[in-house]
Amino acid sequence: MSIDLSIKIGSMTMKNPVTVASGTFGYGPEYAELIDLNRLGAITVKGICPEEHVGNQTPRTFETRGGMLNAIGLPGPGAQGFIDKYVPFLKQYNTPVIVNIWGKGMDDYGTVVDMLDGADTVSAYEINLSCPNVKEGGSAFGTDTDSFSRVIELVRAKTQKPIIPKLAPNVPNIGKFAKAAENAGADAISIMNTMPAMAINIETLEPELANKFGGLSGPPIKPIAIKLVFDAFKACSIPIIGMGGIFEPEDAIEFMIAGATSVAVGTANFVDPTTIDRVIDGIEAYLARKGLSAASELVGTVKA
Amino acid sequence: MKQEKATVLEHDNFQGEYRILRLAAPVVGPMVQPGQFLELQVPRLGERILRRPFSIYQAGPEGAAVLYKPVGRGTDAMAAIQVGDEVNIIGSLGNGYPEPDPNKLPVLVAGGYGNAALYILAERMEKKGIAFFGGRSAIDILLVKEFEALGWDVRPTTDDGSLGTQGLVTAAFDPWMKEQDIQSLEVFVCGPNPMLKAIGDRAIEHNFTAWLSLDKNMACGVGACLTCVIKRKTEDGWEWARCCKDGPIFESREILWDE
């Protein structure tokens, strides 16, 4: 019996449920010599805003027990830079491209979509409403349901392509945001962004990151993300892309059982770029072992 | 750039605190260019997850070797690596040193075990020149015989005067430099950042070429995470350049040093 690994996010079909977390995979070329980009269900690129952005000072990352902090600050080439530099490269692959978009102000979200929407290579937008490391945008929109909904509605009015708001983990009720995203016209939601966090050097008394604070990623956040996906799945009926500390196939399978239709490998890319391959193979093997014929049959099957 | 499960052939004390790790890596070994590095997944690193970058001392068709000193959690955990262990590496990474200019006199400048990263370059260069190696003490000056065997004129300096000229590497380099046709020098540098800056400043002041191998904390090693960025001068200011992908070798004039 052949197993159908494909899933749908709005009108976008992914050949398997596995993508990468924005910011952990560059724009594609960085890992192209190490893994076959055609294997991925989708490539999610680093955040793009309308203009070039310089990002934070260094140090930008700090390794913690089991994970890492980052405060990169969304440096990037801007929408036109992305089209010029990376679209010709990404076009060579038959893998859909999810462009993560962000803005310093609300209007930026519309502007960046206007600039990118003509590129066929751009398959969908992940709307960053939850970056903990950029003062102007990101989390300012992600922790208040009114501005959260307005950004999604603004983007919805600009494009027919699937839109996927990325949710902050540090909200009291993730279900409210999941439902608000659905009501505002989102095709799916991503859960979760990194967890706001901090580390201090006890000799210098200074924060380990130039930005003082950063986002925690890696295995330590996985149980938090599983609970958020579980809660959001109960609250809305659009697909969820689950992420947070996926290092092994079993982690991805757990996300799907909790309610994720798709999963993203993040920090593990830095540790072992073959993780994506292993996760795809592992999901397929698990479905076979459980006698399931499609990845979608696994989604939300948790007995709770 | 390839990921490979390399087998440990040798893991021994080299000199003083320095250790040598020799790996059978038939995929990565032949790819190595002078000045490139490896990202190594340290076995039994416990609850720390990221790979560690190492410059490459020797490389060939069979594999590669790194010289290192325990300086933190990652390198401390490496003490447990045994011959026969499998070590996961990604390499070879970064842009190495450029092809040396045949019309110039090649000069190597290194601090501590930074000279290990210059060995492949020194070996493959047709023209051999002068090598200035600085360290705290005689025990920190590595590979003198090896570089001499390649035909290099090695000039050690030590902070305590236990070998060669007493002082920083510049204590030997400066008086020598002043007697040369300075603009015909091409200097290849690897060592701590203050030393890179000291040589880089001289290169700009006296108008010679200096290729510097920059060291900055890294995570991914392939240009994706944007951890290891440095400021590279542009026409109207500066931009971030990734040490791992755009470097680690930069010409002295490219770098905007932070105050």
Automatic annotation (TrEMBL), chain A:
<feature type="binding site">
    <location>
        <position position="100"/>
    </location>
    <ligand>
        <name>FMN</name>
    </ligand>
</feature>
<dbReference type="InterPro" id="IPR024920">
    <property type="entry name" value="Dihydroorotate_DH_1"/>
</dbReference>
<keyword id="KW-0288">FMN</keyword>
<feature type="binding site">
    <location>
        <begin position="244"/>
        <end position="245"/>
    </location>
    <ligand>
        <name>FMN</name>
    </ligand>
</feature>
<feature type="binding site">
    <location>
        <position position="128"/>
    </location>
    <ligand>
        <name>FMN</name>
    </ligand>
</feature>
<dbReference type="InterPro" id="IPR005720">
    <property type="entry name" value="Dihydroorotate_DH_cat"/>
</dbReference>
<keyword id="KW-0285">Flavoprotein</keyword>
<feature type="binding site">
    <location>
        <begin position="266"/>
        <end position="267"/>
    </location>
    <ligand>
        <name>FMN</name>
    </ligand>
</feature>
<feature type="binding site">
    <location>
        <position position="218"/>
    </location>
    <ligand>
        <name>FMN</name>
    </ligand>
</feature>
<dbReference type="InterPro" id="IPR033888">
    <property type="entry name" value="DHOD_1B"/>
</dbReference>
<dbReference type="GO" id="GO:0006207">
    <property type="term" value="P:'de novo' pyrimidine nucleobase biosynthetic process"/>
</dbReference>
<keyword id="KW-0665">Pyrimidine biosynthesis</keyword>
<comment type="similarity">
    <text>Belongs to the dihydroorotate dehydrogenase family. Type 1 subfamily.</text>
</comment>
<feature type="binding site">
    <location>
        <begin position="70"/>
        <end position="74"/>
    </location>
    <ligand>
        <name>substrate</name>
    </ligand>
</feature>
<feature type="binding site">
    <location>
        <position position="46"/>
    </location>
    <ligand>
        <name>substrate</name>
    </ligand>
</feature>
<dbReference type="InterPro" id="IPR012135">
    <property type="entry name" value="Dihydroorotate_DH_1_2"/>
</dbReference>
<keyword id="KW-0560">Oxidoreductase</keyword>
<feature type="binding site">
    <location>
        <begin position="193"/>
        <end position="194"/>
    </location>
    <ligand>
        <name>substrate</name>
    </ligand>
</feature>
<comment type="function">
    <text>Catalyzes the conversion of dihydroorotate to orotate.</text>
</comment>
<feature type="binding site">
    <location>
        <begin position="46"/>
        <end position="47"/>
    </location>
    <ligand>
        <name>FMN</name>
    </ligand>
</feature>
<keyword id="KW-0963">Cytoplasm</keyword>
<dbReference type="GO" id="GO:0005737">
    <property type="term" value="C:cytoplasm"/>
</dbReference>
TrEMBL record, chain B:
<dbReference type="InterPro" id="IPR012165">
    <property type="entry name" value="Cyt_c3_hydrogenase_gsu"/>
</dbReference>
<dbReference type="InterPro" id="IPR039261">
    <property type="entry name" value="FNR_nucleotide-bd"/>
</dbReference>
<dbReference type="InterPro" id="IPR019480">
    <property type="entry name" value="Dihydroorotate_DH_Fe-S-bd"/>
</dbReference>
<feature type="binding site">
    <location>
        <begin position="52"/>
        <end position="55"/>
    </location>
    <ligand>
        <name>FAD</name>
    </ligand>
</feature>
<dbReference type="InterPro" id="IPR050353">
    <property type="entry name" value="PyrK_electron_transfer"/>
</dbReference>
<keyword id="KW-0001">2Fe-2S</keyword>
<keyword id="KW-0479">Metal-binding</keyword>
<dbReference type="Pfam" id="PF10418">
    <property type="entry name" value="DHODB_Fe-S_bind"/>
</dbReference>
<dbReference type="GO" id="GO:0050660">
    <property type="term" value="F:flavin adenine dinucleotide binding"/>
</dbReference>
<dbReference type="InterPro" id="IPR017927">
    <property type="entry name" value="FAD-bd_FR_type"/>
</dbReference>
<comment type="similarity">
    <text>Belongs to the PyrK family.</text>
</comment>
<dbReference type="GO" id="GO:0016491">
    <property type="term" value="F:oxidoreductase activity"/>
</dbReference>
<keyword id="KW-0411">Iron-sulfur</keyword>
<keyword id="KW-0408">Iron</keyword>
<feature type="binding site">
    <location>
        <position position="228"/>
    </location>
    <ligand>
        <name>[2Fe-2S] cluster</name>
    </ligand>
</feature>
<dbReference type="GO" id="GO:0046872">
    <property type="term" value="F:metal ion binding"/>
</dbReference>
<dbReference type="InterPro" id="IPR017938">
    <property type="entry name" value="Riboflavin_synthase-like_b-brl"/>
</dbReference>
<feature type="binding site">
    <location>
        <begin position="74"/>
        <end position="75"/>
    </location>
    <ligand>
        <name>FAD</name>
    </ligand>
</feature>
<feature type="binding site">
    <location>
        <position position="220"/>
    </location>
    <ligand>
        <name>[2Fe-2S] cluster</name>
    </ligand>
</feature>
<dbReference type="GO" id="GO:0006221">
    <property type="term" value="P:pyrimidine nucleotide biosynthetic process"/>
</dbReference>
<protein>
    <submittedName>
        <fullName>Dihydroorotate dehydrogenase B (NAD(+)), electron transfer subunit</fullName>
    </submittedName>
</protein>
<dbReference type="GO" id="GO:0051537">
    <property type="term" value="F:2 iron, 2 sulfur cluster binding"/>
</dbReference>
